[in-house]
Each structure stands twice: as structure tokens, then as C-alpha cells.
Design goal:
GO terms for molecular function: cullin family protein binding; ubiquitin conjugating enzyme binding; ubiquitin-like protein binding. It comes from Candidozyma auris (Yeast). By secondary structure, the chain is mostly helical. The chain has two domains: 8-78, EF-hand (Recoverin, domain 1); 100-188, Cullin, PONY binding domain (Recoverin, domain 1), CATH 1.10.238.200. It is built from nine helices and four strands. The strands form two sheets. It has a two-stranded antiparallel ribbon. The termini are far apart.
Length: 201
């Protein structure tokens, strides 16, 4: 607890709570905890929200909380509609509560993309690894729009046709980072140019 703000549960309290739940801070389930409890940033909860949310769900035991969180995780694994708001939340969570900060670093983005997407979208593994490589090379900070729209690109284009990315249309309103990714794939020989797009191993 923050001695200057009794409504805040900080990093030590957060780690103790995750330990009670049997959740590793490095796993996706820890992010789901933050999402469910509306954590404003890493290692921080608001005590009032924490209490009110669990009360509203009629859950008051550690076992009940863990079961609810596991069920939430299972639902997200099978429903893109359930997963997407959580994915969008993670950007805000990583960015933090300082409204002056508008972006997250490419390094942070890659770490969280790997946590969130690699197991969730195994069909797109090759393209995801190429995306991480591209983002790492560009070293550009990631905006909220780039973060959110990449997920739509993943679902609407990569997942549907990871080999040729046939659903990609350069005239569509993708963020410039996605367009640059396609150009990078073509220039590096990982995607054939034009209409005859295909994955090159």
C-alpha cells in the first residue's frame, strides 16, 4: 500500500496478490488480472476498484477469483471479440497513467505482442516473427493506433491467408507502419510483390 495514498496497492502488494492466486507475473494471466481489476498501470491497483469489482461478481475467495480469471482466459482464447478489448487495454496499461506519454517503445511492444499473440495465433507464427523483426529494425515507437490496427491486420489479413496476405489492400486505411511492413517483406524477399504475393521460405 502507498503510505501517502491508502487507496493504492503498489508493486509489493500486487506481487503478493499474484502469488496468492498462483499466477506468474510473466504470464498472460497476470495481464488478465490487471484488465479485470482495471489496473491503471504496471504494479498498481486501486483498492476501492479492487473491492467493488469482486463484490459485483459475488466473488470473495482466492479460489473463486482464480477460477473466474481462468474462465476469462479460456473465453478470450476462443473469441476474438472478447480478446480484442483486452488487447487494447494492454497498450494503455503498458503506457501508464501519465497522459503526456502517447507511445510505448518498440522493445516493450514486442515483449507484449509475444506474450499476447504467439500462442493465441499459431497459424500466423511466421508472419508474427517477421513483424517483430521489422519493428525491431525500425525502432519506431508504437502509437495506440498502430497497436490497435495491427491486431485488426493480424485477424483480417494475416490469419486468413498467412502465405500470400491476399487480403491486404494498400488503398485501405492501415497505419503507415503496416504499409511499411508489407514493403519490408517484399524488399527482403519474404513476400512476392503485387498480386502474386506468397510467403518465401
Amino acid at each position: 500500500m502507498d503510505p501517502e495514498n491508502h487507496d493504492l496497492i503498489l508493486i509489493d502488494g500486487t506481487l503478493a496478490y499474484l502469488n496468492d492466486l498462483g499466477i506468474d507475473p510473466e504470464e498472460v494471466l497476470s495481464l488478465i488480472v490487471a484488465y479485470v481489476l482495471k489496473s491503471p498501470q504496471t504494479g498498481e491497483f486501486r483498492r476501492n476498484s479492487f473491492v467493488q469489482i469482486w463484490l459485483s461478481l459475488s466473488i470473495n475467495t482466492i479460489d473463486g477469483m482464480r477460477l473466474f480469471l481462468l474462465e476469462k482466459e479460456n473465453t478470450m482464447e476462443t473469441s476474438v471479440d472478447e480478446f480484442e478489448p483486452f488487447y487494447q487495454f494492454v497498450f494503455e496499461f503498458v503506457r501508464g497513467s501519465d497522459s503526456r506519454i502517447k507511445v510505448i517503445s518498440s522493445e516493450e511492444a514486442i515483449i507484449y505482442w509475444q506474450m499476447l499473440l504467439d500462442k493465441r495465433f499459431p497459424k500466423s507464427t511466421e508472419r508474427l516473427q517477421q513483424w517483430y523483426e521489422f519493428v525491431q529494425e525500425t525502432k519506431k515507437s508504437i502509437t495506440r493506433d498502430s497497436w490497435n490496427m495491427f491486431f485488426k491486420f493480424l485477424v483480417q489479413v494475416i490469419e486468413k491467408d498467412p502465405s500470400s496476405l491476399s487480403g491486404y489492400d494498400e488503398a485501405s486505411a492501415w497505419p503507415s507502419l503496416v504499409d511499411e511492413y508489407i514493403e519490408w517483406l517484399e524488399e527482403s524477399g519474404k513476400l512476392q510483390k503485387g498480386d502474386d504475393m506468397s510467403l518465401i521460405f
